[in-house]
Design a protein that fits this description.
465 residues; alpha/beta; Aspartate Aminotransferase, domain 1; Aspartate Aminotransferase, domain 2; 2 domains; 7-stranded mixed β-sheet; 4-stranded mixed β-sheet; 17 helices; globular; binds 3-[O-phosphonopyridoxyl]--amino-benzoic acid
């Protein structure tokens, strides 16, 4: 077998990558032309690529490396667990201590009444679990018709058939037969892009009331659950107006509709609390977790389930599960991650240091002529780009063109900011220091300046009419 390592020249690695590796959410033929960026190592909040660049990762990998890269505690936990018991399943009346300990710890950290954990390998898998679990719950309660699930346009809940159907990404639904039947999508509470002349508060109420209208249209007796991210992440960091979640809660309570809070991004400190549900004042029946659960060091997800649903599901054989449900190595890494978050008081650091410093930095960036506002909740944020700051105008050219240009200029300034359409996304490791946030600010400002200059020179600062 030939050895492919970081010692090979970048071009050779890129050629091999293009020949054999199909990337997710990518036009692979275009990537082949450009060549994938090869990441070779990482420490703290910095990535290193095969050309030796030190890149500040303001995306925490993919919204997940909450404790930063290179934490020895997580590495040791994986090593120890691999030596002791690298794999055993949790089917057929067996269990093991990593799964036991992680479930118990999650029950302790979760809001009151959420005391049961069903493990999965990812957020997508966990949301597929949730879909089957809520339908099974109502069926076992003698209401099999109460099976419809309401979600939102531009939500992201994963990429498998169930989770992708519950997600509201139209470009995903265009491929492969999604959404599956029984899933419905209402409008999102994106005041910045869709609020027009309404106040954010009025707009939040209007969008929440779409849920009531949809429940009445379907018949409350047919609606199993509403699923939503407390703060939408992949949709562009959409922080709902303050009126939104209280109204959603009122409606779900009134019509006996379960709430699935998808905490895959919001969970484990991202919004300044253990869970985004706490930040937003939501009382969920199920929370989806993944990503920050293990800080991305090992693939693990799950559903934290309330007593009421667990009582019904535990009384029957729930014919569902994954080979890697509660994988011992992943569970051990997740436990070590939760220990780091607690022992290092990472949530206090977020509340007292990182989130205030990030807010300061982003407010300065929001003054930039090409930035049209700021969406911010704790350590997740987006800066929407605009050709016309005064009225939150969209660009006349194809959506995402300016965002892509800015992302490329971020890379050129050794910074990772992802773009969603024309919004720049920020979701750094939670352990980022105030000094590192200063560096983030300097690089982001340079990238925005470069983008603005290029847009001006290309006569691309025209607003859509
Ligand atoms: N729910 C939410 C809220 C997510 O953000 C998932 C579920 C699915 O998790 P898995 O582990 O199956 O990927 C996610 C994942 C992006 C991006 O480009 C975001 C996600 C995944 C991939 C890309 O922002 N979020």
């Amino acid at each position: 077998m030939s050895i492919i390592s970081n010692n090979l020249p970048t071009a050779e690695l890129q050629a091999l990558d293009a020949a054999h590796h199909m990337h997710p959410f990518t036009t692979n033929d275009e990537l082949k032309e450009r060549g994938a960026r090869v990441i070779t190592q990482a420490k703290g909040v910095y990535l290193q690529d095969s050309e030796g660049n030190q890149i500040l990762d303001a995306m925490a990998g993919l919204w997940c490396v909450n404790v930063g890269y290179g934490r020895q505690e997580l590495i040791d936990a994986a090593t120890r667990q691999m030596q002791e018991l690298p794999f055993y399943n949790t089917f057929f009346n067996t269990t093991h201590t990593p799964a036991i300990a992680l479930a118990a710890e999650l029950a302790k950290l979760a809001p009151e009444g959420l005391n049961h954990v069903f493990f999965a390998g990812s957020g997508s898998e966990a949301n597929d679990t949730n879909l089957r679990m809520v339908r099974t719950y109502w069926a076992e309660k003698g209401q099999p018709q109460k099976s419809h699930v309401i979600s939102r346009k531009n939500a992201y809940h994963g990429s498998s058939m169930g989770s992708g159907s519950m997600g509201g990404m139209s470009y995903m639904h265009a491929q492969g037969g999604m959404p599956i039947p029984g899933i419905h999508h209402i409008g999102q509470p994106d005041w910045w892009a869709e609020g027009g002349d309404h106040t954010p508060e009025a707009f939040g109420l209007t969008r929440a009331q779409e849920l009531e209208a949809k429940i009445l249209e379907l018949g409350a007796e047919n609606v199993a659950a509403f699923i939503a991210e407390p703060v939408q992440g992949a949709g562009g960091v959409i922080v709902p107006p303050s009126t939104y979640w209280p109204e959603i809660q009122r409606i779900c309570d009134k019509y006996d509709v379960l709430i699935i809070a998808d905490e895959v991004i919001c969970g484990f400190g991202r919004t300044g609390n253990w869970f985004g549900s706490t930040t937003m004042g939501i009382k969920p029946h199920i929370m989806t977790i993944a990503k920050g659960l293990s800080s991305g060091y090992a693939p693990i997800g799950g559903s934290i389930v309330c007593d009421e649903i667990a009582e019904v599901i535990n009384a029957v054989e729930f014919n569902h599960g994954y080979t890697y449900s509660g994988h011992p190595v992943c569970a051990a890494v997740a436990l070590a991650n939760l220990r780091v978050l607690q022992d290092d008081n990472v949530l206090d650091h977020v509340r007292n240091v990182a989130a205030p410093a990030l807010k300061d930095a982003l407010e300065k960036l929001a003054d930039h002529p090409v930035v049209g506002g700021l969406n911010l909740c704790g350590m997740m944020a987006s800066l929407p780009l605009t050709p016309q700051k005064e009225n939150r105008a969209k660009f006349a050219m194809d959506q995402g063109t300016a965002g892509f240009m800015c992302r490329e200029r971020c890379f050129a300034n050794n910074l990772v900011m992802r773009h969603v359409g024309d919004r720049m996304i920020i979701s750094p490791p939670l352990v980022i220091t105030a000094e590192e946030i200063d560096i983030f600010h300097t690089r982001a400002k340079a990238a925005l300046d470069d983008t603005y200059k290029a847009l001006k020179e290309g006569d691309m600062l025209k607003a859509a009419t």
